[in-house]
Amino acid sequence: MPGLLTLSRRSPRKSGASLVLRSLSVIVVIGFAFPASYLVWRNFTDGGQPFDLLTSRRTTGPLIRTLKLAFAVSTTSMVLGSSLAWLTARTDLPLLRFWRVILPVPLVFPTFIGAAAFIRTFASGGLAHQTLGWVGIDAVLQFRGFFGAWFVLTLFTYPYVYLPVSSRFRQLPSSLEESARLLGDAPFTMFRRIILPQTAGAIGAGTLLVFLYTISDFGAVQLLRYDTLTRAIATNQLANPAAALALSLALLILAAIVVSAERATSRKLPTLGDTQASRAVRYSLGRWKAPSVGLAALAAGLGVVAPFVALLDWASGALHPGSRGLTIDTENVVEATWNTLHISVLAAVAAILAVLPIALLVGRYQTRGGALAHAVVISSFALPGILIALAMRFWTLRSDLAFDLFSDTKALLLFAYVVRFGSLAMGVTLIAVKAVPQQLNDAARMLGATSFRRFVSIDLPLMRPGILAAAGLVLLSTMKELPISLLIAPLGFSTLATRTFSSFEEAFVVEAGLMAVVLVVLSFALSWALVLRRADDL
């Protein structure tokens, strides 16, 4: 009896994880750590002087421009996103439900598509040029450089601030505000003394995400001809590999600093739990109602309506290509759509298979090795896609074995996708693992069920919703990934993102428009299912 009691009380969290599970986790950790480790190793073993290159004008110039752009974009996104979050969460803004749905939609546009839309709109023959011509103004605006990059990235990244801050505003307990109002505090005083301190963490975390996105962006800055670190890396990767490696080291260090700051900020966020005693206090806009509606309409118009109208204008050329002297190959559109869908699904499945063993080690067995593996996977969030692509490209070129096995293969492309987006799947998968009641596993084990049978019959059915959500996040992100697909995809394998980018660069505007429309519609459908339809319930 004592032995039986001891067995029945022992939690599966305290039992040892299988050797297979531990071995799989080690393999996954090595894979996730490889690209960054390889770039660092190459910087110090190729006979170059990385520290000299890091301080050279060739490196400091793109670094300064990257920081300048990132600070500008993150600052304006912070102000715009927080302002819109306040208006939609805590005021009597007209058409409230409509704004809550439309304002996060810029997330579905890859930034390079947004950049292409504005470039074409303001170019000769574009919608803006035609509209100005109707009023007698024959002007062509050059949408390039720092201003263009700042404008585009702000429009399409402010939702990273808007969504978490809006959620935080709606979750704040109303008791403190009601007490302050009874004591005679003005609305601005209440905001400064009570609301802002409780939302500063969410604002900071969202702003740091925008900063990281900006320094990692390649497509928009490439089209807008603004020479940041990512563009300089792509330019030098073949002509000057040593410079490309030094630039990659600078970007890696900068991204690691930003992610560390974001993690520290996120850990300091207060847990509100069930402290909300009543509905959030709603403030009257009064005479600010019209300007507030104007701000929301401006953000939605520039971030959603304008780029989508521009894409439809390009795509409409397929109906009468002869009038514009443009051509369209429908087979290319179909092929790119199929390639995008099936490679994204494969990447989503591979990412789940990669992170699930680590999620089990952390969530069920609570091993130290699992915690270390979890930290490695999460830290890969700091690795921009162009650095992963650069590492894989140099590795296959320098290693005969890697070249023979992986060069020009989908396997290498899938591996890069998993490393890039595995951190997105990690968090949701871990939550799904922790949601499985331990009592069910206890009971099944007492009845003699093997580990595999318990996993198939108990764990998987209960984890399925979370796993599907994690897979959806990876799928959505893979569909829009550009630098990895451009640099290491097999020859002849084009996705919607790479085809849109290349077609625009080569002036096949109709083809670029059609592919961009297909990509945005698919992205919107997934974003709606995963994020937007739930935003109003946050």
Compact description:
By secondary structure, the protein is mostly helical. It has 25 helices and no strands.
Defining key terms:
76% helix; mainly alpha; 25 helices; disordered N terminus; 538 residues
Task: Write a structural description.
- There is one protein chain.
- The chain is mainly α and 538 residues long.
- It is 76% helix and 0% strand.
- The chain has 25 helices and no strands.
- The chain has helices spanning 2-9, 19-45, 50-54, 57-90, 96-102, 111-122, 127-134, 145-157, 159-171, 175-182, 187-216, 219-223, 229-239, 241-267, 289-315, 330-365, 368-379, 385-398, 400-406, 410-434, 438-446, 451-480, 483-488, 496-505, 509-535.
- α10 packs antiparallel against α11.
- The longest helix is centred in the middle third of the chain and has 36 residues, at 330-365.
- Residues 1-15 and 273-277 have low confidence and may be disordered.
Number of strands: 0
**Given the helix and strand composition, which structural class is it?**
mainly alpha
Mean pLDDT: 82
Total of DSSP H or I helical runs spanning 4+ residues? 25
Rounded Rg? 25 Å
What is the approximate shape?
A: globular
Distance, first to last CA: 50 Å
> Which consecutive residue ranges, at least 5 long each, have pLDDT under 50?
1-15, 273-277
Compressed to H and E, one letter per element, the order equals HHHHHHHHHHHHHHHHHHHHHHHHH
Instruction: Let me know the largest β-sheet.
Output: none
Beta-strand fraction estimate: under 5%
The share of residues in helices is: over 70%
